[in-house]
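FAQ

Q: What does a record look like?
A: Structure on top, sequence underneath. For example:
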């Protein structure tokens, strides 16, 4: 029988039996070294507690590293998104400038054609108009 089994058996005998409470309980005498008997349990508990603290510290360090990695990745993704957005904006601006330039050139060309038509009509109408004005002056 292991030391732990023997200790548990002794402690079971110290608790009251089921049913009506007994008048007297079996309690280890002061001469028995209960603390010495359970010392191996406390050293095992201390070892377990130490390992738990080490695991907790390692887990916290790992969590901090995961957080730092996530933050760095977030910043890389953000920087990449900003760069892509700026490139897209530059492309769109260049396309709009090109489109606007073509539209402006078409407007200027149409205005030049209209101006040429007006000048041509004026050139054709000027001799007749001059003759009418001259007749008005001579007849007056």
């Amino acid at each position: 029988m292991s030391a732990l089994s023997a200790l548990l058996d002794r402690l079971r005998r110290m608790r009251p039996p089921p049913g009506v409470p007994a008048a007297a309980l079996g309690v280890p005498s002061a001469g028995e070294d209960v603390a010495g008997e359970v010392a191996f349990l406390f050293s095992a508990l201390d070892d377990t507690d130490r390992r738990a603290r080490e695991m907790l510290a390692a887990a916290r360090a790992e969590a901090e590293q995961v957080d730092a990695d996530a933050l760095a990745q977030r910043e890389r993704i953000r920087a990449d998104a900003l760069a892509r957005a700026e490139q897209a904006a530059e492309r769109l601006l260049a396309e709009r400038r090109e489109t606007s330039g073509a539209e402006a050139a078409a407007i200027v060309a149409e205005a030049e054609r209209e101006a040429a038509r007006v000048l041509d009509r004026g050139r054709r109408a000027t001799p007749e108009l001059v003759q009418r004005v001259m007749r008005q002056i001579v007849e007056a």
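Q: Is there anything notable about this one?
A: The first helix runs from residue 3 to 14.
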